[in-house]
Amino acid sequence: MYYTSTRDKSIRISSAEAITRGISAEGGLFVPTEIPQITLDDIKRIGTLPYTGRAKEILKLYLTDFTEDELNYCVEGAYKKTSFSSEKIAPLYKISDKESILELWRGPTCAFKDMALQLLPYLLSVSASKTLKDTKIVILVATSGDTGKAALEGFKDVENTQILVFYPVDGVSPMQKLQMTTQEGNNVSVCAIKGNFDDAQSGVKSIFTNSEIKKKFAENHLAFSSANSINWGRLVPQIVYYVSAYCDMVENGSLNLGEEMNVVVPTGNFGNILAAYYAKRMGVPIGKLICASNSNNVLTDFLKTGTYDKNRNFYCTASPSMDILISSNLERLLFHLSGENDAEVREYMKSLADSGKYTVEQKLFEKIKELFRAGYCDDALTKATIKENFDKYHYLCDTHTAVAVRVYEDYVGESGDNTPTVIASTANPYKFSASVLSALTSNIKSTDEFSMVDELHALTGAPVPPQLATLKDKKVRFSDVTTKDDMANVVFKMLNI
Ligand SMILES: *Cc1c(COP(=O)(O)O)cnc(C)c1O
Q1: Atom of ligand 1 nearest to the CA of 266
Q2: Structure pTM?
């Protein structure tokens, strides 16, 4: 199995290369040159395995340059029973005859990023050992909140890696800040930046591209890498849970083997829903792929009209992890559906960079319309859905998941499509306690995030994840604040170089 770039089809590299490089030099994203196939018999057999077994079966089809021992080491390290709150890792919760919720937030940071970021560090360290001998991987992350924590938890104590997270000093919530500053592990550091997220991000980028720093790194057997969401090593773990969800839908009696299920995904960067597309292409009986957005509905418009146009208002919503106007992973879909036409993809991406928009060819658009459905909902409807869902099923969902539930209900209303459906749930409700609480009551007594957690628990009885409940008593390990210009020195200090 080889990987190529969405913007240069002549490239042919191994999965280890694709994962270590992260992004292709000309700006394209790495994609597999063929999609491996599985049969219903394979699905039946995979369904008898625990999640780690399912993961190995799928990953070995994509990461053909990894040995069985290497895959075992990666998967068993990532999906430990001690770091997930469900033995099933990504359990299904059947809320009605036709609807099951796929809980992707059972990991250490209570958000779906864990599904990929628990595995990526292992994939990266094994990949690096194949492609860069005797080199330690240094991960730099600029975060606006959730990704930083998920990356810290993932890389913590993984051999041959070191991670440093920068966050804007006044740009994250008190809960997010404590999640990061109390991080445990021997290879982790966290530092605040005086400035906003863009300052942190551009600071990290200028370190990545500084040739002096690169030289200093090489001399010390160090190499930079990124935990960015366009890395193939973050996408491939996500394919696994769609295969696993199908197995569980058969097991819980929602489907007979071979019957189709629809999938609904609350979408931002288009990574999660793209993973469902790959699962469908592999042979998993998936019907419609339903893309749910919040008020930043650039994808809804694109999937309905064929025109992607980011020239529009940007809204800060109650589902902040979906507040995105450029969905990077869409580029991979365009490559596959255009018949792997790299020239066509280059044109779209150039147009996006130049004018903020592009319109896809009719033939490509027809394929998109066949596969995808799309919808969006605003904050008021999101909150109303949280309340309705809780009243009706006594199931508490977070704001991102509620967007998906709402879009699904609208879809069923319009289409009458009664296909059994899996709705991806991307965060634990306590991660967004203020919004979730305000969805249920207008009479909030708490004034800070931590007492809101208690108040939400008193109101709903939904279990509070221990890692959030105990956060306020944990020891703060990292309290440094630096300026953008001094970020490189913070990196040197951490590495003792
Ligand atoms: C990242 C994230 C999303 C969006 O996922 P994409 O793969 O970027 O589409 C949705 N919900 C939550 C809670 C997230 O953290």
Answers
A1: 10
A2: 0.94
